[in-house]
UniProtKB/TrEMBL annotation:
This is (apollo) hypothetical protein. PANTHER family: FI03225P-RELATED (PTHR24373:SF378), SLIT RELATED LEUCINE-RICH REPEAT NEURONAL PROTEIN (PTHR24373). It comes from the Eukaryota. One of its GO terms (cellular component) is extracellular matrix. InterPro entries: Dev_Immune_Receptor, Leu-rich_rpt, Leu-rich_rpt_typical-subtyp, LRR_5. Residues 1-22 form the signal peptide. The chain crosses the membrane at residues 430-453. Pfam families: LRR_1, LRR_5, LRR_8. Coiled coil: none annotated. Keywords: Membrane, Signal, Transmembrane, Transmembrane helix. The lineage of its organism: Eukaryota, Metazoa, Ecdysozoa, Arthropoda, Hexapoda.
Length: 479
């Protein structure tokens, strides 16, 4: 699961709180509504007002916000704005602005020049192309011959028409930590896009979901030594990108859903030693998880391996090398095509949460051992207990209801081996031994006589006589 941005969560919670506060905190404006919780928290709601241009003046209530420590949220969600012009100055220390779901095709230079304390900007779900995005958009005030930076931390560019990024796009946003490029027709991370990404050296969160890429150049992550979360879902990867190993020392959350991978193997997660949470789901072609797949993930806490309709096999050595120092607390294997699991796949009793619903479980002795003897049955969430699919007599039964009583048991004890001595022999043993030797000797003699008789008969009657040669001149019978 891809973790949400902390600041955004705070803003959403703030909006919910102020919206339910008393009537005294709400002041109406002709275009927008101003919600003032106190002097430090203000929301300007300009959503769904059919606004076509950015206002050149804010409601006077905004001036009441304290200059230091004030939080301001301004939302133009779902309007008809096509061009973002330069915004008026806004007091406050942390400012968030949303232009989500408009018709933006152009952003003027210096658009945010007057809002140096802008920390959150949502430009998602518009018609913005890569050519529109320029570093000049984010320029701060011009002082002493240079443009200063702005405080931008979160930039959401999802659901636009971006194919490529300008290499200098993040020149004036040194504090950028969260970048969302999801659902853009990028297709290829070209050279200038790679340069742009690698220049955002403080990035912690990068969303590249549904951008139709099938590879990531190594240089794309070079220098991103703070990257902690990445979403690569909905792309065309047939393997987990090797380039992820460059950020393996910092990467903690990886989402890799809905890609055409067929298998996971010992090369899939090489170098990702600090990964805490891994999500691999909705991969329609994924069939098996091979030996040592998860071995590199020394600090993994949560594994989501769910909703893979053709996943039928997980090697019993998939977690090879991890069992001695087990870190996993939550494992979710829901909605795959699994029927069996090895009893030694993992130390089941060390889990805190286990999900196994939506599979075709064969309730055999191995599964009974996992559920009962290894206590996996106590790890299911309430209401999420899986069913048996086979054999027929257990079909539809909760797997927690099967027991080891129907499984065969084997005697594991061994009889003590006794030493041999002459005293162990009995007269009958000696007699039978002599008789056996005599029979062997007699049989040998008979076979020898028979062989000799056959050879004599052959030499006398069957073997051809040698040809005799005579000298015609010396034989008188021919004289």
């Amino acid at each position: 699961m891809f973790h949400q941005r902390k600041f955004k969560q705070v803003l959403v919670l703030l909006c919910a709180l102020v919206a339910t506060s008393g009537a005294d905190s709400e002041v109406k404006n002709t275009l927008c509504d101003v919600f003032l919780q106190d002097v430090n928290y203000l929301t300007l709601n300009c959503s769904r007002r059919n606004i076509e241009t950015v206002p050149n003046k804010w409601p006077e209530q905004i001036d009441n916000i304290a200059n230091e420590g004030g939080h301001v949220l301004i939302t133009f969600f779902n309007n008809s704005i096509s061009t973002v012009t330069q915004l008026p100055e806004i007091p406050g220390n942390r400012i968030a602005i949303s232009f989500k779901s408009n018709a933006i095709i152009e952003i003027e230079d210096d658009a945010f020049r007057n809002i140096q304390r802008l920390v959150y900007l949502d430009l998602s779900n518009n018609r913005i192309s890569g050519e529109v995005l320029r570093s000049e958009i984010f320029q701060g005030p011009y002082n002493d011959g240079v443009y200063s930076s702005i405080a931008l931390e979160t930039l959401n560019l999802g659901y636009n028409e971006i194919h490529s990024l300008d290499r200098y796009l993040f020149q004036y946003t040194p504090n950028l930590t969260r970048l969302y490029l999801n659902n853009n027709p990028i297709e290829i991370l070209d050279h200038v896009t790679v340069l742009a990404l690698s220049s955002a050296v403080n990035l912690e969160v990068l969303d590249l979901a549904n951008v139709d890429i099938d590879s990531i150049p190594l240089d794309a992550f070079r220098g991103l030594m703070n990257l902690q979360q990445i979403d690569l879902s909905g792309n065309k990867f047939v393997n987990v990108p090797e380039s992820l190993s460059l950020v393996g020392s910092t990467l903690q959350y990886l989402t890799f859903n809905n890609n055409p991978i067929v298998e996971l193997n010992d090369d899939s997660f090489v170098g990702l030693t600090n990964l805490v949470q891994l999500e691999v789901g909705e991969n329609d072609f994924l069939e098996e998880v091979k030996r040592s797949t998860f071995t590199p993930l020394k600090n993994l806490r949560v594994l989501h391996l769910c909703h893979n309709p053709n996943l039928r096999y997980i090697s019993h050595n998939a977690f090879r090398g991890m069992k001695e120092k087990w870190t996993l607390k939550e494992v979710y294997l829901d909605d795959n095509n699994l029927s069996e699991l090895s009893t030694d796949l993992m130390p089941w009793s060390k889990l805190e949460i286990l999900g196994m619903t939506g599979n075709n479980w064969l309730c055999n002795c191995d599964l009974a051992n996992i559920i009962t003897k290894q206590e996996a049955g106590a790890k299911f969430k309430p209401g999420e207990i899986p069913y048996c699919a086979a054999p027929m007599k257990f079909s539809g039964t909760f797997i927690t209801n099967i027991t080891l009583t129907f499984c065969p048991t084997f005697d594991s004890t061994y009889a003590t081996k006794k030493g041999f001595s002459i005293s162990n022999l009995r007269p009958k043993h000696i007699l039978w031994s002599i008789f056996g030797v005599a029979m062997i000797v007699c049989a040998g003699m008979l076979i020898g006589l028979l062989v000799n008789a056959m050879k004599a008969f052959y030499n006398k009657n069957i073997r051809s006589q040698p040809i005799r040669y005579i000298n015609l001149h010396s034989d008188s019978s021919f004289a």
